[in-house]
Design brief:
Helices cover 60% and strands 0% of the residues. It is mostly helical. The chain has a single domain, classed as lambda repressor-like DNA-binding domains (434 Repressor (Amino-terminal Domain), Orthogonal Bundle).
Amino acid sequence: MMLAKRDMKSKELAEIIGITEANLSILKSGKAKAVRFSTLEAICKALNCQPADILEYVED
């Protein structure tokens, strides 16, 4: 959702933060088991947002 708000493509974000499009896809799908704080920081910096804007807690 934040990508759309910033009019940015996944490929562009992946290049900016230095991860593969495949890894970004895993993060976007919610299938990632973990995310490094440095990656989260890079995403927030690139999208000019806060972690709460892109993360959601869902109880199993």
